[in-house]
Amino acid sequence: MNQWVPSIPGASQPCSQHPPRAEGLLHMAAVFLSYRHEDDIHRGRVRDLGERLEGAGLKVVLDQFAQSREFNGGGPDQGWPRWSKTQAGLASHKVLIVASPGWFRCYLGTEIVGSGLGAAAEAGVIEQRLYNVAGVSSDIRIITFAQIDPLTLPLDLQRYHRFADPAGFGDLVNWLSAGEAAPVGELPEWPDQPLALLWPMANHDPVRQGLQRLLTREAPWRFLPLRGPTDSGKSHITRQIFGNALRLPGLACGRFDFKGTTNVDVELRAFAQHLDVAPPPASPRLNERLSHVLDALNRRSKPALLVFDTYEAAGEAQEWVEKELLPSLIRATWLRVVIAGQTVPERGGAPWATEASPPLLLSTPRPEEWFDFGQPHKPDITLDFVRQVHQLCGGKSSVLAQILGPGT
Hints:
Blueprint: E1 30-34, H1 40-55, E2 60-61, H2 63-69, H3 80-89, E3 93-98, H4 101-108, H5 117-132, E4 140-144, E5 162-164, H6 169-177, H7 205-214, E6 223-227, H8 234-246, E7 252-257, H9 264-275, H10 286-300, E8 304-309, H11 317-328, E9 335-341, E10 360-361, H12 367-374, H13 383-392, H14 397-404
Parallel strand pairs: 1-2, 1-3, 3-4, 4-5, 6-9, 6-10, 7-8, 8-9
Helix pairs in contact: 3-5, 4-5, 9-10, 10-11, 12-13, 12-14
């Protein structure tokens, strides 16, 4: 049976720092990510790429992973220059060069003296690897996060294929796995085991665990309702759920926020685009347009996740949800639904009741829980500081996650 992604041992454990890694399915070369620390945004994108590659079952060698997982924040005993050169030079490692102007300057030796020393050390080893094989390498490629003029690359690197992320992520996985991985972009069925999730939030572990169960073939229910008062972090949670779904190859997913219906055309267009269906035709009734999207998904009948936020603001669309969408779960085994709001559909007596989980009741994480969340990323923070920030922002999850999470 084809698997979507590998089973993840220990998936029931907390995933707030990094997702568990798939073990033992794809026996292939590790991939070393060589990049220049341009800024926090670029560094975060490299980490996100590494986590997605791990989610696809690949072994990833990245300084950010090694620092927390192997060196416990203390760095390698031999120092970073030696570690970096060793990883770049191992014949068992494929190398993925993360394109950026700074990395290319390091490769060419034109960077400001004293800057980019780690990238320069790696680049020198990579250049020697290419020289040793007369430039014919099956192990070294380039990845870009934005459009790039090929002529801006060093002349001797212009010959090599460049993967564009995220559009070329499937091709990248296929190259790295040498054909051993399941085809990316195709999801014949839901996976048997819970998947690894990124979860940059304090607590809300019941939601994470519920989502992991929801996205499996033998899920006990297909509808996960999340109910909570104002400022309990509902929108932050639905955005995290949606972000995780986007990282799962082959899964169609869309997030629709009912409080965004003042600009319903924009909201629906984004909803349809992420689900990879045609935008619904213009209509004065939101119900008709949502039905059009559901019909398109029904015709395709491939695994899909629909996430709805601010259900109390749905208005007439509540009728569509409770009389059309949720009843369709009885037969549509390919469909999963998450609905969050101050109110959620009541399952008592509904025909779809057996497809619904009991509502998960949300509450605002306490400062102590945010302190536990932030410590791995910000070892110097104090509980008093977190309490002050928590009070100043009213416990707003999105603000606290940004301040206390990685890369800030």
